[in-house]
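INTERNAL AUDIT FORM
Audit reference: QA-55
Scope: verify that the stored structure record matches its stored sequence.
Auditor: D.O.
Record contents follow.
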Amino acid sequence: MTIKDIARLSGYSIGTVSRVINQHPDVSEAARKKILEIIAQENFQPNSNAKHLKQSHSTPITIIVKGSSNLFLETLMEKAEQYLAQSGETANVVFVNERDNEVRQAVQICTERNPKGIIFLGGALENFRSDFGSINVPCVLISGWAKDLGYKNLSSFTTNDYDGARQAAELLTDNGHRKFLIIGGYRTKETDQVSSQRLNGFLSVLKEKNIPFDQNTQYVESMLTMEDGYEKTLPALQRLPDTTAVFGLSDLVAVGIMRAAHDLGKYIPEDLSVVGYDGISYTGYTVPRLTTIRQNIDRLVSEGVDDLLFRISYNKAASHKQIPADPVLHESIRDLSR
């Protein structure tokens, strides 16, 4: 059962349910009684850790954003802050560099600030695997898959990036493309990392269609930023001038790819097709508009934050959910099949 389910059964808003669950005073007695009755019917028991946190003067929820130049995660952050505010909660926001250890930062925050819960926006699973064990407060990882880590206080809500990247590959191959570059992310042994899921999903379609792809030359690692996407695409396109399509593992990388192509005298989509991933608002304003795979930001945030707020106050098992992505067809793919 989620906060949304309780809201539906009680007839009260999600914000009201959240304020009751987190013991805020600005709720009518009638609403509080009805909502608590429904919670009791589901046999949820108060979280003893929540009582301890209240007694020890815990600070607001902390949001840790993985990457200081990631517009997708910044959009998640803004949505999370808005959703928390609707539930009567505030948040402290901390940005960490894409290559830094966000979990060690969380351990330090727990020691210094004693937050009632932590929202991780993005994260490297190797960091959670090695360092998360000392964190005891309820946490949720949004845009990352933590189910296999087995931590009882860590939920995760993410996009099905493997299937999303397969959609990108299907779009390009169905339009006759056979010579690809993939830009973005880093090689890792963690196959459930976001970049690995996107890379492997795209490559699975190429394999099924017997389209050759050499990872040593056609996959280029980069940070998920416009700047790095641009810098890494320039030499790649010069090295492989016959490339007809590029898949950027984020929309920001794809915007960098588009600029690099322009600076090399290539027109999009006439000379080069480009597909991004995330569905940030920028994709509707590039020239041409960027075709992308869109993540469902509203569901990621609402379900992730609901889960965290519930577990702060009640004993509830960690949840893990993958949410589908969908393609947004704009103007950056040329049909070569005609």
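Auditor finding: record pair retrieved intact. The domain at 3-155+296-323 is CATH 3.40.50.2300 (Rossmann fold).
Action required: none
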